[in-house]
Design a protein that fits this description.
The protein contains 2 helices and 17 strands. It is mainly β.
Length: 275
């Protein structure tokens, strides 16, 4: 894939970039039986703003993605590679030998006509194939990884992401995640081979505020630019500092650099913290 630039016909076009997808995406309209309507909540509960900076944006249909991929030992052929407005990665439309169609996350480099297989046994190490971690060699890039057997892929699902196996130990596999964290995962958990598609996603430059509004993201205002009743950082004359012992959220909770991790039950699975 390549990054597409534009002639500077307007100030916003001067720096705007997009991912060139003409040679990658093969189908514009989604499969009707695999989409459902998606209600936009606009960050509000009963009319009051409950989540700031959310609202508006283009209408979207939700594509039902198969993160479990639980059709074992049935060959599936890649029918199309499609865009998904709800995520950074592309989708692959699979047609199974029994006639069923499903969406999965598209691995980077996959093409129409390729065949994919999911199995609980050892199968070929090929982009898109899915099998238990115990059968995947050390150093192989993997994605859409289960944390508990049979639950479906929960991590490594965004564009360009992949994890690698570093070791095997007592029924567990050590995974190096993109953050640098090394984590233990049961060896019976399933994982898909390859890197998630659209790796250039993080190189896109929006160019103008409007493109971000299309995504449903509303403006963010600095607390110190507000008046005292709206934010603890507000008020003062001119360019005032925060003026507090530590930065706070609009509701008085500590902000910036404060640990928010609550899931301490999984501490025993983490060997090395992220950097």
């Amino acid at each position: 894939m390549t990054i597409k630039t534009y002639k500077p016909t307007t100030p916003s076009r001067r720096f705007m970039t997009t991912v060139e997808t003409k040679k990658i995406l093969t189908k514009k309209e989604p499969e009707k039986v695999l989409v459902v309507g998606k209600k936009e909540k606009a960050g509000r509960a009963k009319g009051a703003v409950s989540v700031r900076h959310q609202g508006g944006g283009a209408k979207k249909l939700y594509r039902m993605v198969d993160f479990k991929q639980d059709k074992f030992d049935i060959n599936a052929k890649v029918k199309a590679i499609e865009y998904d407005p709800n995520r950074t990665a592309f989708l692959t439309l699979l047609s199974y030998a029994d006639g069923e169609k499903r969406y999965i996350l598209a691995p980077s480099g996959i093409k129409v006509g390729d065949e994919i297989l999911t199995s609980k046994q050892k199968i070929e190490i090929k982009d898109g194939n899915r099998m238990p971690l115990s059968f995947i060699p050390v150093g192989t890039p993997i994605h859409n990884i289960e944390l508990f057997p049979g639950k479906g892929g929960e991590i490594i699902r965004s564009a360009g992401a992949s994890a690698t196996i570093t070791a095997f130990e007592n029924g567990y596999v050590h995974l190096r995640l993109p953050s640098g964290e090394i984590r233990r995962v049961p060896k019976d958990c399933l994982a898909s081979i390859g890197v998630v598609s659209n790796p250039e996603h993080n190189k896109i430059k929006f160019g103008k505020a409007g493109r971000i509004r299309w995504l449903g993201i509303r403006p963010t205002v600095r607390g110190k630019a507000m008046h005292p009743a709206a934010h603890p950082h507000g008020g003062g004359e001119g360019r005032s500092p925060v003026g507090l012992k530590y930065p706070k959220t609009p509701w008085g909770k500590p902000a910036k650099g404060v640990k928010t991790r609550r899931r301490k039950y999984s501490d025993k699975f983490i060997i090395k913290r992220r950097k």
